[in-house]
Amino acid sequence: MDVKADVAVVGAGAAGLSLALRLARPPSGAGPLDTVLLAAPPGPARAAPRTWCFWEPDDGPYDEALAASWQRLRVRGADGTSVTTAIAPLRYKMLRSDAFEALVGRRVAASGRVSRVEAAVDQVAPVPGGGALVHARRADGGSVAVRARWVFDSRPLSRLPPARTTLLQHFRGWFVRTGRPVFDSSVVELMDFRTPQPAHGLSFGYVLPVGPHEALVEYTEFSRRVLSRAGYDHVLRDYAERVLGLAGYEVTACEQGVIPMTDADFVRQTAPGVFRIGASSGATRPSTGYTFSAVQRQTSAVAAALHTGRYPLPPRPHSTRARLMDAVLLHALDTGRVDGPAFFTRLFRRVPAPRLLRFLDGRTSLPEDLAIGAHLPVAAMLASALALPLAPRRSLPAA
């Protein structure tokens, strides 16, 4: 099977689907672009269903597919003291990947401008004269070759770029159902530090209630090494039963993942006309692991460039200032100069939540950043800033 297209989008995760959707809906006056979306067929090459969370105002473009949304967040310190804060005009939104894929599928099919091909991509090879040839395999063993002027690859990297600091945000979550109403569905437990803290890094519980009887309950850890499945289930059971006081609950589904939090400099172009988008281009915020909002900004810029005939190099998902601040914080957490639970609890206690969320999203001004910086452990952060340039860069396998 041979296909020619203006644009090939490799991968049907958050980045690939978001770009395909934007290319399916060109602005008034823009010419249509023949686009092929290559999505891995069911099997080992396809990512398991997962949950994306992000914050934005009401009336977002994907609101009809949300599992839930909230206007209040809670952070609990290791001693159990808590701060609950309203985030209006923002909402914290929970989007399941299967619901997002279905939504994009409906909208793309209605446009008639994007063709979806279910095939696992083996190779993206530049061709003389510009563009690239994408080689892929269907589930039945048949081959697919897509030649496109522009290729946007969102597949995970096999190895991370060299970095001074890389921590892994690794987690396992249970979707639980209880017989009696136990969850406050009006507030998210964003960070609950009443979990056993690892010797290196930090850990917290995370609760997304979708109703009084149902919630996603997760254990999350920032550290250098992942746990075994039995290890995750042990700490999850402890958190659910000892900390949250759940009893007689049913686990209806699970999700598990690893997100590299790194100060690496990601490559955004690998060959003429071949680009990386999404997490493989650095969309994950190094200090938090959040990715979805940066993906939206990046794919919006790429689609706008394509529709207006400009060179579509994906922009850096985060500003230079944000990446520098994140590099210092990661180094401080990795070296133990900063107590992670105390650091995040203090930020949420002292900084108004809407401003802090904009800060975490890289949308604050320099004066706002400096004001937030006044609430940080200055000596520890300064020591990490001075030590950071001397730290060697290492390349690690991707999680």
From TrEMBL:
Top-rank taxon of the source lineage equals Bacteria
Q: What organism does the UniProt record list as the source?
A: Streptomyces lonegramiae
**What protein name does the entry list?**
Lycopene cyclase family protein
What the entry lists under InterPro entries is as follows:
FAD/NAD-bd_sf
Q: Which Pfam families match?
A: Lycopene_cycl
